[in-house]
Design a protein that fits this description.
By secondary structure, the protein is mainly α. The chain is about 65% helix and about 0% strand. Helix 5 (about 100-110) packs antiparallel against helix 6. The longest helix has 18 residues, at about 5-20. The chain starts with a helix and ends with a helix.
């Protein structure tokens, strides 16, 4: 299981470091790659799935933000952490995910299904079925 608190702490450290190097402002464009890598390393899922899911999160929450200069917000990072928990078969923070999130996660898992280890695929599918995403 992933330690979600460690992931959240690592994200805050990343943002803090960027603010220190950028006159107190966190520029999402400068931390984007590091944040994606941090997300991918925090789970044992294949990179193809984590990259796709990160892109969904980024497009749905970060790039659609009304105030991009404040991204990534705490709420959006919490959503990413909830997705990370899902990937590691945990129900931690699952209440933060919308039905649209579950549907999109279902589609992304489906796209990668043949490349996922059987046990992981079964675990993810059970969660997705329980959320009405299949």
């Amino acid at each position: 299981m992933t330690d979600i608190r460690k992931f959240l702490s690592d994200v805050e450290r990343l943002k803090k470091h960027e603010r220190q190097n950028n006159s107190g402002v966190c520029d999402y464009n400068k931390i984007q790659g590091d944040l994606c890598n941090l997300f991918g390393r925090a789970t044992s899922c294949p990179a193809s799935l984590t990259d796709s899911i990160f892109s969904y999160w980024e497009n749905e929450y970060v790039f659609k933000s009304e105030n991009f200069a404040e991204e990534p917000t705490a709420d959006h990072i919490d959503k990413l952490a909830a997705i990370l928990a899902f990937l590691d078969n945990s129900d931690e923070m699952e209440e933060l995910l919308t039905q649209n999130d579950w549907q999109e996660l279902s589609e992304l898992v489906g796209y990668e299904a043949e490349d996922l280890p059987e046990g992981l695929l079964q675990d993810l599918m059970m969660i997705l079925v329980s959320k009405g995403a299949y």
